[in-house]
């Protein structure tokens, strides 16, 4: 009887651990939301064979986009657990800083929320001996508009209204334009505090592309990494913007969905002209990204996104982060590790992690081409 009771208790404890692990897996990330109290990350362990370590060795430095940081943190944890003696160090800064570091030859790859510009490609030829920098789409996801308005749990906005808020034209939450989009919702006269990224950011550029394509005269600015509009307050990184929105009543800001999920920040539902406003979710972002076309040539797989889609359930304020690498002329000492690590991130297991953590996988057809290019790097 004692032995039977001991086995029952052991089975009960094991069941509790399985449930606990499943619950942790559903949590989405902020700068450190993938950490538990003992500093260990909680991510789905990759299946045997998903990570191939052949030739990988030493330390691989990378830097860039903070938009993909939460995904990269999970990838790095899994990869380093599988590949003994290999260290991957990704510095989350900004897309602009990542590309500068890449073109200075100080990192094996860079993360960027927007594709390389012609002048950046030209500059990369100095580092990529006999080749050039190329864009490999790796992480997709929604740019959420997080808000903090006391007493308001649900908020619908359209492109023109978002533009007028961030362009400092709409200054109070009970403005008629907002009320019209939210019938039955009691909106306070609280002043709007809008926050944007203080440094060059691909997230800023992608929001700008959406507003430029959809908001008409309400957004007269060209899309750029530097915030273009007057007013508002700047904060560093997606985590910095999310923290300000979380703390300030009347606030609104933009950041990747994982940052909103981690801090419990409410997000705007987008009125796109579809039958119903669309929520910012990984699944809904995937519906928008699925319509993307490859705009790059040769080994470059830069994508052209459709920000004007009105498809049901498609959330069009999306970004795709690219891993920027040399097609030829990669450093021999880091090339095997770059190929090994990126092959894992582009694998089925690596892409599955994205949807589980508030991001959106790259469409399968495009991802297959990404893997082909990774294997051809030299």
Q: Any overview of this molecule?
A:
- By secondary structure, this protein is of the alpha/beta class.
- Helix content is 37%, strand content 18%.
- The chain folds into 2 domains: 58-141 and 321-376, D-Maltodextrin-Binding Protein, domain 2; 142-288, D-Maltodextrin-Binding Protein, domain 2.
- It contains 13 helices and 13 strands.
- The protein is elongated and about 60 Å long.
- Keywords: Phosphate transport, Signal, Transport.
- Residues 1-27 form the signal peptide.
- This is Phosphate-binding protein.
Distance N to C terminus: 64 Å
Tell me the fraction of residues in β-strands, as a range.
15-25%
**So how many helices?**
13
CATH fold label of the largest domain: D-Maltodextrin-Binding Protein, domain 2
Question: What global shape is seen?
Answer: elongated
Order of helices and strands: HEHEHEHEEHHEHEHEHEEHEEEHHH
Secondary structure category: alpha/beta
Which architecture name of the largest domain does CATH use? 3-Layer(aba) Sandwich
Low-confidence stretches: 1-43
**CATH classification class of the largest domain:** Alpha Beta
**Integer count of domains:** 2
In helices, the fraction of residues equals: 25-40%
Q: Give the CATH superfamily of the largest domain.
A: Periplasmic binding protein-like II
Give me the secondary-structure topology.
Layout (H helix, E strand, L loop, with lengths): L1 H24 L32 E7 L4 H14 L3 E7 L2 H9 L5 E4 L5 H7 L8 E16 L7 E3 H8 L9 H6 L11 E5 L4 H13 L18 E3 L1 H11 L3 E6 H7 L2 E2 L1 E3 L10 H8 L3 E2 L8 E2 L13 E9 L8 H11 L2 H9 L7 H13 L2
Parallel strand pairs: 1-2, 1-3, 5-10, 6-7, 6-8
Antiparallel strand pairs: 3-13, 4-8, 4-9, 4-13, 11-12
